[in-house]
Amino acid sequence: MNAFTTDSALREIPWLLHGFGTRRFGEADLSALAAAHGLRPVLLGQIHSAAVLAVTDALPDGTPGDALITDTPGLLLVIKTADCLPLFLVDEERRAIAAVHAGWRGTAIGIAAAAVAALRERFDSRPGDLWAAMGPCIGPGCYEVGRDVAEPHPGRPEWGKALRPVAGSPDRFTLDLPAANRARLEAEGVPASRISAAGVCTHCSPDLLSWRRDRRTDARLYNFIGIRPKD
Ligand SMILES: [Zn+2]
């Protein structure tokens, strides 16, 4: 078994390094991988916001935010997850990337759209040029939520397609995070054919970490994407 998985479209881009970590890929492994490729890790103090930070260097510990964008070679953008959705965006034309942390809160407040907008504003990225790759997260079969989660943001395009009522429980719903984020990305102009999802549930996979299953507050999967440094 590999320590991390990769996306089939992003694998074909030679200047990119990326992966979605398993439980066997810890912080020391991340540091070793980054060093081996001449990359500096950039981590956030993730707070379930829609804040997108453009970076040209590593950040001070605990810098709040939930998405990183860059066109600087030599940085490894890191998103930590344990059921939340890690999402990568890649502009192959302009060599710009985004790493996004999308739990239900971030999804509800449109973090994916915020990242697309930030890439456009900062790097002139066209949504039609983007690749979007979603890693493992808690799947809809394992992710039951209440009416508080289901209804805080009526009218958001992604919510309708991603929520399903639970039979016999009027106040319970299942939430499909990848479907919600896919719908939002498509609404922002990212072509459906350029959006992929790992389709792996963290809660069902012993190889992955799930906060809902394990209740370990500190354990996270490390998901990473970076532009390889020039020789
Ligand atoms: Zn599951």
What would you report as the Rg, rounded to the nearest angstrom?
17 Å
Largest sheet: 6 strands, mixed
Helix-strand category: alpha+beta
Assign the CATH superfamily: CNF1/YfiH-like putative cysteine hydrolases
CATH topology description: CNF1/YfiH-like putative cysteine hydrolases
Can you put this structure into words, describing what you see?
The protein has a single domain (4-139, 194-227), classed as CNF1/YfiH-like putative cysteine hydrolases (4-Layer Sandwich). Helices cover 23% and strands 29% of the residues. The protein has 7 helices and 14 strands. The longest helix is centred in the middle third of the chain and has 13 residues, at 111-123. Strands 4-5-8-7-9-13 form a 6-stranded mixed beta sheet. A hairpin with a 4-residue loop joins strand 7 (85-91) and strand 8 (96-102). The chain has helices at 27-36, 104-108, 111-123, 147-150, 157-162, 177-187, 211-214; strands at 4-5, 16-21, 40-42, 52-54, 67-70, 75-81, 85-91, 96-102, 130-134, 144-146, 163-166, 169-175, 195-197, 221-227. The chain is globular, with a radius of gyration of 17 Å. The structure holds zinc ion (ZN).
Top keywords for this entry?
231 residues, binds zinc ion, single chain, 23% helix, CNF1/YfiH-like putative cysteine hydrolases, alpha+beta
Task: Please summarize what this structure is.
With 231 residues, the protein is an alpha+beta fold. The protein has helices at 27-36, 104-108, 111-123, 147-150, 157-162, 177-187, 211-214; strands spanning 4-5, 16-21, 40-42, 52-54, 67-70, 75-81, 85-91, 96-102, 130-134, 144-146, 163-166, 169-175, 195-197, 221-227.
